[in-house]
Amino acid sequence: MRIVIAKKLLSAVGGSEIQARQLAGALAARGHDVRLVGMRPPWRRPGIPDSALAGGSAAVEHMDGTPMTFVPSIGRHAGAVLDALLPLSLADDRALNAALAGSEVVHCIAREWAGPLMRAARRLGAAYVETPLVHPGQPFSGAGASDVARYREAAAVLALTEWEAAWYRARGVPRVHVTGTGPTLDPVGNVTPDPATVLFVGRKERYKGYHALRAAATLVWRERPDARFVAIGQRAWNGLLGGRSRDPRWVDLGVVDERAKAEAYARATVLAMPSEHETFGQTYLEAWAMGRPVIAGDIPPLREVVREGIDGLHAANEPLAIARAILRILADPEGARRMGEAGRARLLERWTWPVIAERTERVYLSALGYR
Question: Vertex 278, ends 275 and 281: CA angle to 5°?
């Protein structure tokens, strides 16, 4: 099949961004002709070659050999700035048509520019497939009436969990499939885990549990003064308002490369990301890939992904609940080891990229039949 996987920002940072790249590589490994298409960013982004900012919309070879095309915005640089800062879709239609030309399937991951992609796919006679990553309850969550109308018209909608699929079906979306997602970690050698280390990986937003985790650290230190906290990820736009921890046992890092991230997982005792809005939570898979237990948010999709007491724990996004979960895991190293191993076994069974690519391929075939 000739497949375009479209993600507005083709950065090397972020769950959906990595999902697009990994899925493209896994589908190419199955013999498909796969291209990645994104919007040209107005400024440098991790993992996006500088040539993508230099005018034109020609394909740029990524390090894994998958061709990537960066579509300019209407208004060129000024339009790109507006498109990056506001919930707009200012893709240049002619350039977008050229980028999608010849494709049989156009697969949009996340919703940022789904409208222009659907219209372009229809013009070109391609099957339009969408992975919306809906986040009900958040601003611009994908739960609006216009979003649902688009899901109903798509040749296929891909959900990451059964909970998400049920949300679409309850709103009359007819062609819904569950595929899941996979982890992305560079291999590391023998790394000795640090004792009593709690890791957070993700954007440092309140809804992700970052602020509650910072408050929970103080409660944990009352019983475990040896505990250490490491937070990796991009700071929220209002991150400076929260100040910085002066305690040396709290280490705040920004965006790190994939190897440094993998080593952080390998050194950690537990991953804690008690998010209250999540479609799946790719970081839990990354922790399991290293055999580490997880503390996930106590919400329906995460209760489906993380099995309570088997491969992790759930905690509400508030300090006391998070502290209790952390102390429970730190107090039982053998139980923590069993949880991490159970998570790794489940990951290898259900959520490797070859498995995800095979499921997605079947969806594409059904979408072509619908078209």
Answer: 85
Q: What is the pLDDT of residues 44-94, one digit of tens each?
A: 877 777 777 766 555 576 656 788 998 888 877 787 787 777 777 788 889
Please check whether residue 210 is in contact with residue 235, taking contact to mean a CB–CB distance below 8 angstroms: no
Both 36 and 149 in one domain: the answer is yes
CA dist., res. 193 & res. 221, Å (int): 19
User: No. of H helices and E strands in the chain?
Assistant: 13, 14
- 207 and 157 in a common domain: no
R_g of the chain computed on alpha carbons = 21
Strands 176-178 and 270-273: unpaired
Q: For residue 163, what are the CA distances in angstroms to 104, 178, 279?
A: 29, 10, 9
Domain count, the chain: 2
Beta strands 59-61 and 67-71: pairing type?
antiparallel
Please give the span between the terminal C-alpha atoms of the chain, in angstroms, as a whole number: 14
The helix/strand/coil state of 221 is helix
Instruction: Dump strand ranges (E) for the chain.
Output: 2-6, 33-39, 59-61, 67-71, 105-109, 127-131, 156-159, 176-178, 197-201, 228-232, 250-252, 270-273, 294-297, 312-315
pTM beyond 0.85: the answer is: yes
257-294 pLDDT tens trace = 888 999 999 999 999 999 999 989 999 999 999 999 99
Do 164 and 248 fall within a single domain? no
User: How many Cβ atoms are within 10 Å of 30's Cβ, its own excluded?
Assistant: 13
